[in-house]
Amino acid sequence: MKQPPRSHPLWLAFVLHRLSGLTLALFLPAHFWLLSQAITAPARLDGFLTLAEHPLVKVAEFGLVFLLAVHMFGGLRLMALEFLPWSNRQKTLAAGAVGVALFLSGTFFLRAI
Amino acid sequence: MLEVIVQRGTTEASRTDRFDVPARDSQTVLDVVTWIQQAVDPTLSYRFSCRVGMCGSCAMMINGVPRWTCRTHVSRVVQNGRLEIAPLRNLPVIKDLVTDMDPFFDKWVAAEARHHPTRGRLEDSDPITANSPDRAEADLGIECINCGICYAACDTVAGNPEYLGPAALQRAWTLLNDSRDANRSGILAAVSGKGGCHNCHSMGSCAQYCPNALNPMRAIAGLKRETVKAALRRKRDA
Fold it and tell me: What is the pLDDT of residue B236?
C-alpha cells in the first residue's frame, strides 16, 4: 500500500532531528578517540590536525556544525512543545531552527576558509 | 474516463482490480466507488453512511492519502486520470475497502477516553463554564468524528501496534479538561502507559491530514505535560 506523503514541514523536522542525532552519535566516538590521541600519541594528533586544513574537511566540519546546531535547536523546539503552553507556530519554529543552524554553521565555515 | 485501481480482498490475501469509470462533474470518490459497485461489480465492499462528512465511516486511502471519500472531489485528487483507492492504513482489512475498526475503538477504551460522570443520572447535570480556559481547550478537540484518518496517517501507529493513536489520546485530553469528568487520575494513568502519549514523535501527520482541521498533536503535547506534572507531584508528595 502507498504510504501517505510525508513532505510536510513537521515530518521533515522529525526526520532531520533523527538523522542529525544518529550522525552525531556515530561521529562522537571518533571525535573522543581523536582527542585521546593528545595524551597517548601527540604526533598522530598533529597529523590529523594538518589534515583539517584540507578544503574537503572544512566542508565536512561545516556539515557537522550544522547537524549539531540543528539537533540542538530542533530539540529545544520539541522540549518547548512538550513542556511549555502550546504554540501554533510549530512550522515557523522548526524552520527557525534550520535557519539559525544554517546561520551558525555558515558563519563557522566563512571563518574557517 | 477514469482509471480506478481498487484494493480488494483481506489483509492476508489482497489484490488490485482495475475499473474504467465515467468521469462526471462534481464527482466524489464515494460516487466512483458506488458506481463500480452498482454498475460493474456488486461484490465490492465499502462502508459509508451520511455522505456529507458527519459520520466518519467512509474514510479510505486515495492515492496514498487518507481522506473522507464523500467530501473528496475526484478533480482534486486525480493524477493523470488515475485514482488508487485502498482501505485505511494501520487497520486490519475485513474485505476490500472495509477495515476492522475494533483495534481503533479498543484503544479509545484503553486510553480511558470515555466519560466518567461526576453525578448520577437522577441528579441535575453539572453546569459548565463555556469561557473557562479548560473548557476552551476541551472544545478544540470535541469535533472529532472518529473517522480514523489521523490513525491511518500516523507513522508511530504503523511502527508500534500498541500505540493508542492520535484520536484516542485527543479524546482523553478533552475529557481531562472537562469539569464533568470524575477520573482525572485514571485518564493520566491510562495515557502514560506503554502505548501512551509519550510514544508520540510529534511528526504532525495527524494534524496535517485531519479533515476537521483538529490538532491531535496539540492534545498529545498537553497530555505529556500533564503526565509529567502528575509524576513530579507524586514524587514531591511521596
Answer: 81
- Rounded-to-integer distance, Cα B53 and Cα A58, Å: 56
* Cβ–Cβ under 8 Å, residues B122 and A37: no
Q: In the prediction, which pLDDT does A47 show?
A: 87
Interchain proximity A4–B221, CB inside 8 Å: no
Q: What is the per-residue DSSP string for A21-72?
A: HHHHHHHHHHHHHHHHHHHH-HHHHHHHHHHTTSHHHHHHHHHHHHHHHHHH
Is A71 annotated as contributing to ligand binding?
yes
Which of A2, A9, A78 faces B61 most closely, judged by CB atoms?
A2
Whether residue A1 has pLDDT greater than 80: no
**In whole numbers, what is the pLDDT of chain B averaged over residues?**
95
Tens of pLDDT, residue by residue over A62-85, are 999 999 999 999 999 999 999 999
Q: In this structure, which topology does domain B102-237 adopt according to CATH?
A: Fumarate Reductase Iron-sulfur Protein; Chain B, domain 2 (1.10.1060)
CA distance B224 to chain A (A): 6
The ipTM of this complex is 0.87
- Which secondary structure element, helix H or strand E, spans residue B214, and what is its range? none
pTM higher than 0.90 for the full model? yes
Q: Where are the domains of chain B?
A: 2-99, 102-237
Residue-wise pLDDT for B204-224, tens only, equals: 999 999 999 999 999 999 999
Nearest CA in chain A to B137: A86
Equal fold, B2-99 vs B102-237: no
Task: Give the CA-trace dihedral at B181, B177, B188, B218, to 10 degrees.
Answer: 150
- Place domain B2-99 in its CATH homologous superfamily: Beta-grasp domain (3.10.20.30)
